[in-house]
Write a sequence for this structure.
């Protein structure tokens, strides 16, 4: 038996599988924005023109700038004011999310609320990042939007992925991605990470997407604190969304909630208060 050839063959099969999954190319508007942000002195005017080139993006930017999640006390009346209120990095995160929504359709019945939930998660991540003064809100926003983008891509690739996703959602003990890996030799976390890298998102976002169902990293000091923080905050956000939808605590919270609170240094009372504040912000939006 050739014990060396077998692992190599398996690697080749997985590589071929991943190449068969359609990863949308980075949108040209995003490339324009990232080039401007990489400049030594990014221009507000140039960024404003990029935003204004898409009517839907302009409207969404104004709505976001005036939402309860972002404070909403000052009302932005123009794209330029919205950029000033939110800051360049937060505007970039918002634009990245809108472009993702355009590039990754989620039209099936099984994905009817996919982008609504992703957007709410992104807003929750911003709220938590600001409230706990942890990390950069724009990075938290981007992670919140992108962490599950592998789901519609796998739904498009595998006819039976919907059944896999439904079964994984009901798994009370094993990691969410375990069933995906067993059935499809990849997971939405792996594909989402690949998309993030292809689109030039930050390394912390990519690694956090890859590990957002791997709660063991919360206790792993060798993992970057920025990655661990995103994973911990995502558990709080997910729990709040479940409560907002009228459900009990999520299964993912039962798997990793205690580790997340320990990592964030939150007591049970502090966690409950934080979730109540987040729910109130949801209802005000």
């Amino acid at each position: 038996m050739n014990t060396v050839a077998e692992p190599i063959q398996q690697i080749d099969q997985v590589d071929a599988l991943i190449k068969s999954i359609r990863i949308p190319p980075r949108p040209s508007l995003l490339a324009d924005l990232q080039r401007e942000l990489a400049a030594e002195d990014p221009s507000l005017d140039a960024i404003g023109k990029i935003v204004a080139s898409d009517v839907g993006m302009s409207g969404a930017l104004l709505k976001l700038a005036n939402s309860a999640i972002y404070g909403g006390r000052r009302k932005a009346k123009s794209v330029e004011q919205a950029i000033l209120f939110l800051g360049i990095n937060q505007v970039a995160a918002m634009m990245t999310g809108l472009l993702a929504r355009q590039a990754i359709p989620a039209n099936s019945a099984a994905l009817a609320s996919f982008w609504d939930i992703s957007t709410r998660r992104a807003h929750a991540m911003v709220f938590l990042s600001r409230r706990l003064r942890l990390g950069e809100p724009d990075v938290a926003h981007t992670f919140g939007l992108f962490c599950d983008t592998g789901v519609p891509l796998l739904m498009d690739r595998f006819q039976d992925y919907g059944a896999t996703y439904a079964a994984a959602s009901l798994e009370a003990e094993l990691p969410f991605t375990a069933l995906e890996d067993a059935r499809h030799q990849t997971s939405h976390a792996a594909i989402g990470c690949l998309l993030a890298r292809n689109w030039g998102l930050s390394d912390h976002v990519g690694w956090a997407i890859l590990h957002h169902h791997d709660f063991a990293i919360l206790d792993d000091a060798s993992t970057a604190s920025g990655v661990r923080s995103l994973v911990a905050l995502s558990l709080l956000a997910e729990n709040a969304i479940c409560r907002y939808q009228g459900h009990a605590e999520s299964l993912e919270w039962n798997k990793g909630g205690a580790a997340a609170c320990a990592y964030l240094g939150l007591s049970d009372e502090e966690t409950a208060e934080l979730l109540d504040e987040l729910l109130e912000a949801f209802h005000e939006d």
Q: What stands out?
A: The chain is about 70% helix and 0% strand. The radius of gyration is 19 Å. Residues 108-285 form a domain with the Hypothetical protein af1432 fold (CATH 1.10.3210.10).
